[in-house]
Structure formats: C-alpha cells, structure tokens
C-alpha cells in the first residue's frame, strides 16, 4: 500500500497563497488588535474578507456555485492550517467557527430555498450566523440527551422555548441554527429538530455576553433566551426529529476544522519560540544550544507532525464517505491537547517575554485552552473512543485453532 501525502497542485498553490496572504496582510492586523478581532468590529471583518477575496483565497471550503473553491476535507486540512497561523486568518477567509461549520451543515441538509436565503449570504460574508445547542445546567452540554429547549407545534409552525449559552457570535448574527426537543423528555435521547431562526424575531433575546478566558472568537459568546419564538414550517432544517443525526453531519467535520486552525497557531507559537531560542544568549551559550530547550522544541515538532497526520487520516475517511467517528474523536482529543502543550512550551522557552503582551504567545495560551472543552471535552471523546473499541469483538487466534481442531 502506498500513501501519497502530497496535496494536489491546486490545493498546494492555494495553501501557499493563503500562507503569503495571512503573513503579509492579516498578521499586522492581528498585532494591531492583539488577536481580538472583535475590537476591530465589522469594519475589520469586512476589510479583511475583501482583501482575501482580492487575493483569491476567500471561502476555500464552499461549493463553487456559492463563490468558494469547493475543497474536500483533505484540501481544507492543508489550507486551513495556513489560515490558522494567525487568529484572524480564519475570519479573513470566512472559515471561522461557527460560520464555517454552519455552511457545511447547510450545504448538506438545507433545501434549495433555504440555501439561497441562508447559505449564500453567509458564504459571501455579508452576514454572520451562530449555532445554538449548549444549555446552562441541567440542559445539554457533553450529553446532548439532556436537551431541554422545546419546540411545540402551533398553527403554521412551532413555538421554541428555552435558554442557550456559550453561543459563539450570536451578537450581531443574522440568524441562529437552534436545536430544540420535538419529542421525548430530557434524559432520554428522543427527537430533536434544527430550526433556522432569524435574529430579529420576537422572543429571541441576547441575555448577556459571557466573560471568558478566550476573546478571539468574533463577537464572543452569549447567553440567549427563546421565549415563545414562533418559527414557520419552512424554518425546519432537514426533517423533524432528525436533529441529533444532523448534529453529527456538522460535528465530525467541524471538530476537524477546529483542529486544522489551531494547528496553525501551534506552528506560529513554535516559530516564535525557535526564533527566541536562536537569538537569546545565557549561561555562555544560545538558549537553543541547551539540551532541555532542545527537548521542548523537539517535543513540539513531534506534537505538530502527529496532529497533522491524525487530522489528515480522519479527513481521508470523511472524503471516502465514511463516518470518521472514531478517527475524528482521536484527532480532536490529541490535537486539542497537543496544541496546548506546544503553546505552553513555546511560552516557557520565551520566559517572561512569553507571559508579556509583547508577543502573541500569552494570547494564544488563553485561546487554545477552551478547545479541550468545546466540540466535545477530552473526557467525553476518550469515553466514546473506549466504548467503540470495547464493542469491537476480535476472535483470538487460539480460539480459532481450537475450533478447527474440534471440527
Ligand atoms: C469557547 C467556547 C465556545 C463554545 N461555542 C459554542 C457554540 O457556539 N454553540 C454551542 O451550542 N455550544 C458552544 N460551546 C459549548 C460547548 O459545546 C460545551 O461547553 C461542551 O459541549 C461541554 O458541555 P458543558 O460545558 O456543559 O460541560 P459538561 O457537560 O457539564 O461537562 C463538564 C466536564 O465533565 C467531564 N465529562 C464530560 N463527559 C464525560 C465522560 N463521558 N466521562 C467523564 N467525564 C466527562 C469533562 O471534563 C467536561 O469538561 C462553547 C464552549 C466554549 C468553551
């Protein structure tokens, strides 16, 4: 079996142009706003996206009919990693969460009319969106079966009631994709349905901005209330009661694209540390000549290389039409932790400089930590990985021989 890891020429060219664009156009803006794009507001988002369009690197993931480059998952892995080198790169290319995952879901599940109304403007970057799944305790979090937001049938549509939190980008989004229970009770899986809800409908309200460790996601994270929100039948995304299945359509690719983007940040952090290790002199030698620093640099190279291969393997399975449930869980768990280790080592190598705001390392440190929690905490993935493995029944060779002998 031969494994060819060379990206095709189109992907390689797009990745090279993305790297150039991110380093020359996006990185200075990242420095200016210290990694917090929200501080630059809509003006910065629109200006960066216009520049990405001019550079021919905008929306690499979306189908060509919606103005994108139509990359498959393997192609995305190569290009998104380059975009992720800067915290603002994904925003510039229109591949930041949650919009990127929502575009993927809408392409897969929405009707043609819904695609025109919701996907097209999102793909063009003229609007933003959010994804409303998680609820304050005792509602849905790691365990989606705890879903307690309800949608009950009413004349001509549905009434949605409930409260969500940690809804990234909700403030200023044109609409949200909201998961609500349409059958069963919290605690049993029952049925959930996804609804496309315009942000200006009566009864939907941003309760507050949540103060968080991370600040780089555009518009932050909000708590959102749904109080007798009326949604029409046309607002149902896919089929009623199939919401948990559609969540899987979004989640496996979305957790991988998070991995791709954060891998870019890990590489950037390692570059900052290596540059420092080359220049800084102490104890009569360069920092980079000291064995313990070399060990940290080497361990980070190993984490980066292993992360990339795990991402590519899961992407290959998705491109072949397989579920990639196990491989994407493995990749997500490993990459979320590996990226944290790389950024932490880079900060350590830089000493007090790493803690300061004079490099972006302290910002990166705060930004990568929550990735061990969203898109499934490491513990939830480990639990699922083990359960899948334990379900696999292997017949030991000795048993097979004994059976043959008795036959
Ligand atoms: C920065 C950020 C952005 C987010 N954006 C969004 C968004 O846009 N939309 C949205 O809907 N949600 C969003 N979330 C929410 C995210 O999806 C949830 O935080 C995640 O699903 C975990 O749920 P929870 O926080 O309720 O933790 P809980 O479910 O309360 O879990 C708490 C802890 O329990 C442990 N645990 C979980 N499962 C197991 C297990 N099987 N065995 C042992 N221990 C376990 C883990 O350590 C876990 O961290 C975001 C979260 C963060 C931090």
Q: What is the topology?
A:
Blueprint: H1 9-32, H2 41-54, H3 73-83, H4 89-93, H5 99-109, H6 112-124, E1 129-132, E2 150-154, E3 157-168, E4 175-183, E5 191-198, E6 204-209, E7 221-232, E8 236-237, H7 243-279, E9 281-282, E10 285-286, H8 291-319, H9 325-350, H10 352-355, H11 361-368, H12 378-391, H13 397-406
Parallel strand pairs: 1-4
Antiparallel strand pairs: 2-3, 3-7, 4-5, 5-8, 6-7, 9-10
Helix pairs in contact: 1-3, 3-7, 5-6, 5-7, 7-8, 7-9, 8-9, 9-11, 9-12
The protein binds flavin-adenine dinucleotide.
Q: What distinguishing features does this structure have?
A:
407 residues, alpha+beta, four-stranded mixed beta sheet, globular, disordered C terminus, binds flavin-adenine dinucleotide
Q: Can you describe this structure?
A:
The chain is α+β, with helices and mostly antiparallel strands and 407 residues long. It contains 13 helices and ten strands. Strand 2 (150-154) and strand 3 form a beta hairpin. Helix 3 packs across helix 7, helix 5 packs antiparallel against helix 7 and helix 9 runs antiparallel to helix 12 (378-391). The radius of gyration is 23 Å and the shape is globular. Flavin-adenine dinucleotide binds next to strand 1, strand 3 and helix 12. Flavin-adenine dinucleotide (FAD) binds at residues 98, 131-134, 141-142, 166-168, 214, 221, 370, 373-374, 377, 379-380, 383.
